[in-house]
Design goal:
mainly alpha, 2 domains, 10 helices, globular
Amino acid sequence: MRGWSFVIAKHNDFYTHILGALDLVISQLKSQPYNLSDNALYTYLIQAFSWTDYEFKFFQLILPALSPAELEPFLAKIERNLAKFGNATPYNQKSCNLICDIIFYFIQHQNYVNASHYLTLLENYDLTENLVYEKLLFTFFTNLKKLLLHQPANTWRRPLSKCIATAKFLDMPNLAEKFEQTILQITN
């Protein structure tokens, strides 16, 4: 009977959370309805008071699958946990990427008020020279804010074009396309 214990499935939070993330993402890709109250990852993230890199990574994974109403309970928690990190160097890159994902999310959902709020949070970052990707996003978003604030086109058009050109030069065609689509969405 001792060997039997090796066969019995054990509860493993990591795998439960992976399955929860996959369930949300697949349901969203298939445009199928899903019940978040049954999702172990969503429940865990809502209940976790303090977030570490583990929670931030899972949140970033499911962010595109969430509706604005499903995202709402996380916003104060995210800001509180990001504030704990401050300008701690190892977390600068990760928190900057998370804020950028949230900004893209709000722009995609045409919530420019919340996008502007997170743009303001992003402007407080002091990024080191080695964070090239993050600096490119930072430059893109600081100039995109000018567009959102209806500043004259000569203040934002050229810097945004340079960001797109830089992404293409660095062989980041998906990012360049994301930049272009974001600008088109706002200008149309």
